[in-house]
Amino acid sequence: MRIALINPNQHLDYPQPHLGLLSIAGVCQQQGHGVMYIDANAHNLSNVKVIEQIECVDMVGITATSLSYPAAIQLAKDIRSEYCRHFLVLGGIHGSLFSDEVIKEGIFDAVVVGEGEKAIIPLLELKHKGIYQSHQPTDLDEIPPLPYELLDGFRPRIAYGKHQPFMPILTARGCPFNCSFCSNVIFGKHYRAMSVDKVIAEIYHLHNNFGIREVKIYDDIFTVDKQRAIEISKRIAGRVAWSCMTRVNMVGREVLDEMKRSGCYSIAYGLESGDADILKSISKNTTLEQGEAAVRYAYEAGIRVIGYFMLGAPGETLETIDRTVDYAIRLKLGHAQFSIATALPGSELYNHVPEGMRANSYALPGVDNPSLCSLSPAQLQEAQAKAYKRFKRGK
Fold first, then answer.
1. Domain ranges of the chain
2. Could you read off the pLDDT of 338-391 as tens digits, one per residue?
3. Which residues of the chain form beta strands (DSSP E)?
4. What kind of fold does domain 2-133 have according to CATH?
5. CATH class held by domain 158-393
6. What is the reported pTM?
7. I want to staple 119 with a disulfide (CB 3.0 to 4.6 A). Which of 132, 252, 292, 383 is the partner?
C-alpha cells in the first residue's frame, strides 16, 4: 500500500518535524508499505501543492491537534474533492478526543485514537472505516528508528539555539503530574522511557549520518528519572550540544552538573507564575522557592535558563501578573515566555469553560477567546505585551 502522512500547514514561525508522524512512518515501512511524509507546515505548502503530490497514494493520514484541526479538515475536504477514492485517516490529539464527532462529519474514513504505532497496524491490514485504538501503552524500545530521511532536506531552527543543523528528539512519553492546563490524552500519565542505549543510538545516528550538531529533548520532564538523565548525559559526552525541559522540583546539583559537562547549554522550566496562589489554582504542585532553587542550581552549573509562564489562569489579576513579571526579572532568566492560558480539550481547565464557548477555548489567542479569569481577553493580551516589555527592560 502507498501511504501519505501529512502535517497540515499552521504557518508557525519555528516549524519542527512531527516526531509522531515520523514514528508512524517507521511502523508503516516496517510493515512493508511505501510511505510519503509531507510536512506542509515545514515547507509552507498550500493545500494545492500537497494534493499535487498524493495522486498515486492509497491512504492519506493527517495529524491534528485541536488548534490545527480547522487546517486539517480543510485539507481533507480539498483532497476528497480531488480524489474521491482516497482513504482518509485522522490522527493526533483532536481525533483522540472527538473521534465520534469526526467520524459523523463524514470527511474522514477512519480515526486513530491515542498512540498510533499499534493502532495503525490493524488499520493497514483491514482498511475498514471506523475508529482504531490500541489500549496497550507503546514500548518505546520496540518502535523502529525514526526515518529522518523522509524529512526531504528540512532542517528545523530553534529559537535561542546554539548550533545548526538541529533536530528535536523524544526519549520518553507520559507525565505523572496533574497540572490543570495540560492535555495528555495521547501519552497519558504513565511515564515510559526509552532505554539509554536507544537514546544514545538515535543521537549518534543523527550526528554521524545527518550531521546534526544540536538536539533538543522534547520530553515533558527529562529529569523524572535523575539517574537515567545522568547516564544519558555521560554517554552523550559532548558529541552534540543539547537542551531540554523539566520541572523545578525534578532537578538537583548533581544531575545539572553532569548535564552541563556533557554539552547541555540550556534548560527550560515550567515556572508558570510568580504568585503562590496561582500555582495552587493550576495544580502545579511546585513552589516559588523551588523555582528559585532550580534556576540557581542551573546557573551554578553554567546552564542557561528559559522560563515558561502562563497569564490568565483562574484567579489571575493584574496584580498577580505583576508579581509573575517581578519574579521572572528577579530570577535573571535568559529568556521568559509569557503565554495566555488556554483551555485545551482534555485538560481540567477545559471543564471550566461554559459549553457554548468551548469551540473558541482553544483557538489561537484573540479577543474571541473565553477568559479563564476576571480579566478580559483584551486585557490579557495587553498584559502579555507589557510583560515582555518589562522583562526586556529588566524592571
1. 2-133, 158-393
2. 999 988 888 888 887 766 666 555 554 444 567 888 999 899 999 999 999 999
3. 2-7, 34-39, 59-63, 87-91, 110-113, 130-133, 166-169, 172-173, 192-193, 214-217, 241-246, 264-272, 304-311, 335-340
4. Rossmann fold (3.40.50)
5. alpha beta
6. 0.91
7. 132
